[in-house]
Amino acid sequence: MLEFYYSSALVSIMSDERPLPRWRRPDYSTLIENVYKIGTPDFDPFPTVTDVMNAAHCPVAAVHNILHGRDNALIEGTGGEIGMGKLFHEFIAHLKSEIAAGRRVRDVPQIRYIFENFARHEEEKRRMHCWQYYIEPWCRRKLDEISSIPTNANVFFEVSVANPYVPFLFESGERTYPLMGKIDEVDIENRRLIERTTMGRPDDKSPPRLKDFQLWLLWKTLCSINSEKYPEIWRNVNFKNFTLYIETPYRDFQVDTNRPEFERLTHRAYAWIHDILFERRGIHEAYDMRECTFHNRIEDCGLRWSCYGKRRPRPFRTVRDEMRNELRRMYVLLAYELIWSKHLFRYQLTMLDKPALEELGLITSGKILSYQNGNLEIELEPEQMDRFLAQRASGELGGYYIVFGSFFVGIKLKGNFVEQSGENKVLINTANVRVPVSSTALIVQTDPEITTYVDQPWFLTEWLQRDLFSLENWGLERDDKANSNPTIRMLETIFGVDYLRRDADNARQ
Amino acid sequence: MSEYRMLKELLGLFVNDVEKGIDPRNAGWTEAPKNNIQKLIEIGLCEIENNKVRVAFHPLPSEVIEKLDEEGKWLADVHQEMVRATQILNEIIQTINNPVFQPAATFLGWKRMLYTSSFPVVIDRILQEGFSADEWVPLARKASGALSLSVVKRWWNENDVLFGLNKLSFIEEGVLVNFNVDKVARILKWDIVASLLNKNVVITLGLLWFADSKIKDILYAESMVYIQRHVWGVLEQIIGEVSGTIRTEIFDTVKAVENITSEKDKVGRIYPIACWNFIIRLPW
Prior knowledge:
The complex is a heterodimer. Chain A is α+β, with helices and mostly antiparallel strands. Chain A has helices spanning 8-15, 28-31, 49-57, 59-67, 84-100, 108-118, 124-147, 211-224, 260-278, 281-288, 304-307, 313-351, 354-359, 382-393, 458-473, 479-483, 486-494; strands at residues 155-170, 173-187, 192-196, 243-247, 252-255, 363-372, 375-380, 400-405, 409-422, 425-430, 440-444. A 6-stranded antiparallel barrel of chain A has the order 6-7-10-9-8-11. Chain B folds into 2 domains: 3-80, no CATH class; 99-278, no CATH class. Chain B contains 14 helices and 5 strands.
């Protein structure tokens, strides 16, 4: 049985049996950017499923996620294992897509051949490892199932879902929160949703930590979306009756959708996210209520080092107070900057209508004319073409996300501008197009789940938070080494206890 | 089991108990193990009471810590800091619970809060008063004593503050005499701000920041959480409200300060003159 905690602000509210505070969304002026984006945002963030999982996992993980740009408390694998889950899932998506496109598979060696070809750009060691420990065990138990996938099966991978108002039960009513994420597989044929992971062992009796919660959140989000926002071909599908599965390489776990403890866990996670961002005492409470104690540590937590690591005395003992004051203010400021940019953008995409988004220059819409060799030819509306090119010329655009469906539910493909192929026509290259669920494409300049190729690099802000945190925690044990260490001396100079002179060769005594 | 391994185990039990929320003064007790414990007791590394044993509640000698492994050193570090944290907490509580010292402690807390905020104010206001951007932070920091005094004076007599400062052996230079204070106060609209701060908010922020000044070199979350938890407990008694209510009151006050001091730009958009959340704030 899970235990549930609420931060004290919420405990007091709940003990009075008054409802939880409303999750604040940006008002219309903020959405259309008619306000100065400075200071403390007067709206709460638009979290991803990963953010909520981190906060549900441990409040300290939420602190690291929100303030220190580290969302890896629940990441799959360490060291060479990092990214293995992605390769595992991408290959299975590729394999199933191939079968749905008409390819037949007979046996595991044939799948091995397909995998070797698919993963040829990966290091051999990594490829072997992924095959041996993850894909082969999965194939052996799934061969019959995947062999019987019919041609043109309605199976979709990496389906993005988002809704600013996802309802969760609360006492006799409900509370709504914004939430977004990506479903590994939506299998319309067999009426099921699948979350795939390389975590887990052959003898596991239950799904890996919080994976069931993750899939349940995604399902809740999918079900909360108004059917008008679904792609045309999904309009008559009732996702409430779908079955949820966690697939590890070795076992499948069915997830019950009626989970009151998940409802409570969700309220708790959102309460932590709010308190850590807007109530400074929330951070002390997060440490006070962390999941681990020394004898009951969560061994596979990706952030265990931060709770159970020795502090080096230098520069801690010398300038810690000054560093702490400066750096901690910066963590919060950077977090607010992300809310004003990344999170506001998510609200805009899901709360503004299409003309308003186009007017703000956030999206450009068009129609797909053709798709060949990974190149999509898209026809833009004439009045949008000039804006599109102007933005590109001014260097604002570098990468695009092409959304099939809507921002609420659809498949987002990353693309790069190739050329203007004709009047009001552009060519966008996508490395890998599987099955678009709509013929109408929306071209988004940037995306909430961006990687390094897009032009609003929000991830840099998170990297900055991460670097500051590393700096805050870095140090040396021995004074003699610290006295001649340039970084320590620089820090001690910046924060006020040392004097550095150019060209001086004397180490601090 | 060697005595150092035994010592590490006892340190682990102590830290584990503290993390579970047990007061460090009562943490770490376990049934007395048979092996090697006598030796640890003899050399003063363990203490025994009612057939239970725990790691001694005082800092361990450095030559002992040196012989522990990396994890043992970490445990010893946390243990040592917890011992110190209990002493620091005692001092803090004695000060903030004493009505004679309360005005001075509140003043010192406010001064620290303002000083460490770096006064994030929109640049236009700074320039309007004839300061350059470079001058602003050092000058505003110098004025933090006077600004704090103007807040505390609304609820206590100035002499009470100075008397308490004297008793606490703080020498306050330039609290009252600083020719730039008026300009800094004008930029911040400090008179309006001070008028919005009720006594609960002033005391809470003052005493929490006073406590924060005493834990400058505390490194570990365990000790920080322990001190914070107890200081909040004392504050709840002084103010007579639960912490959730106090926090909400502070949050609402900052919002009110932001709203009232905000200005309009040429096209009618409202903007806050400062990031008040980064000036009037709880310590972390």
